[in-house]
Write a structure and sequence with these properties.
The chain is mainly α and 144 residues long. The chain contains six helices and no strands. The protein is flat, with a radius of gyration of 30 Å. The mean pLDDT is 85.
């Protein structure tokens, strides 16, 4: 029977936990700080809209703290969802959206297949133009 001897008197080295440098850690912390700041800035308007939707009309027009709901109510939601006019507008918007998506898919899927699989005169130019279109902001494309 053989025994294995472990040399405990060997050279010691300091164990380093984590593989990031100190500068990288600080850069990551600053990144998270600015990400949290951006998230808070971006979420303030929807949160304010939610808070305002839970207030009564009198409380909205009162000169009190705008970030606090003193008497929360769901009457605004009930009134909106039982309004025939809102439901008609919502139904119209949903139908237009569904029809537009169906028409777009019926046209774009065969066009994308033809552009990617078939070689024809001008296909490379058309593919490049389509790609470059994605690099331009939509607001500028609306102007053209």
């Amino acid at each position: 029977m053989s025994t294995l001897a472990i040399d405990k008197a060997g050279p010691r080295r300091k164990v380093k936990y984590g593989s990031m440098s100190r500068d990288r850690v600080w850069a990551l912390r600053w990144s998270y700080f600015f990400l949290a700041l951006f998230a808070a800035f971006s979420l303030l308007p929807p949160i304010y809209m939610l808070i305002t939707s839970l207030k009564t009309s009198a409380e909205i027009s009162a000169a009190t703290n705008p970030w606090w709901v003193y008497h929360p109510t769901l009457s605004n939601y009930i009134e909106l969802l039982t309004s025939n006019q809102f439901l008609r507008f919502f139904w119209n918007s949903a139908m237009v959206s569904i029809i537009v998506v169906i028409i777009t898919m019926l046209i774009s899927v065969p066009a994308a297949f033809a552009l990617s699989r078939m070689k024809f005169w001008g296909s490379a130019t058309l593919a490049t133009g389509t790609f470059l279109t994605y690099l331009i902001p939509e607001t500028l494309l609306f102007l053209f």
